[in-house]
Design goal:
3-stranded parallel β-sheet; alpha/beta; 5 strands; single chain; 7 helices
Length: 205
């Protein structure tokens, strides 16, 4: 099978234009402005850059961004308190906790606290379970993006070969569940699937 390059930049711009129009229509109808809360623990340059991209995207699409930078030495108790406050805030529709967290914090505990309705990354155990259910099409950010690319390309999600390259433990679990209907396996350590046939989809971490 010959490899096919999917123009992700063009697809992304099309999606952004559509989302921007929908947000504008929602606000014009008197409904609330969608809001994304981001939580950045510490001052890692790469994490700050990623969160900054989310804030910029929110501004471009007409959404509200609620950024919560907290010190790297924040206690587990204080971080959990922040998550609970964001869960209860009606202005916040989605919550993104930037990983990795400092080693003294329990990442799984923090992610489990995020409301399943506001779990943008889809890392909570309940949402991972929903993702693995047959017929479920949960729209968690990175997986939804991959599915959309496959849909635009015309092949769809089912019965495709997928290789996940260099993803962490949380991402690997999510991608494995999301591509349960695909042929082959999702590797988290960069091993090649070329011996099983050329992968139709490569999901980077």
């Amino acid at each position: 099978m010959t490899a096919q390059i999917i123009d992700g930049t063009a697809i992304a711009q099309k999606v952004r234009d559509e989302v921007k129009a929908k947000v504008a229509a929602r606000i014009a109808a008197g409904k609330s402005q969608p809001g994304l809360a981001t939580v950045l623990v510490g001052d890692r340059v790469d994490s700050a850059a990623y969160v900054g991209m989310k804030q910029k995207a929110c501004a471009e699409l007409g959404m509200t961004s609620y950024h919560h930078p907290v010190p790297a030495d924040i206690s587990q108790e204080d971080l959990e308190k922040l998550i609970k406050e964001l869960n209860a805030d009606p202005k916040v529709n989605g919550i993104l906790v930037q990983l990795p967290l400092p080693s003294h914090l329990d990442e799984e505990r923090v992610l489990q606290l995020i409301s399943i309705e506001k779990d943008v990354d889809g890392f909570s155990p309940i949402n991972l379970g929903r993702l693995a259910q047959k017929g479920t099409r949960a729209a968690f950010c990175s997986l939804h993006t991959i599915w959309m690319h496959l849909s635009v390309e015309g092949s769809g999600r089912d019965h495709q070969r997928c290789q996940c390259g260099g993803v962490g433990p949380f991402e690997h679990r999510r991608h494995a569940c999301g591509f349960a209907a695909c042929e082959g396996r999702c590797h988290s350590d960069g091993r090649s699937l070329t011996h099983e046939g050329y992968p139709r989809c490569i999901a980077p971490g």
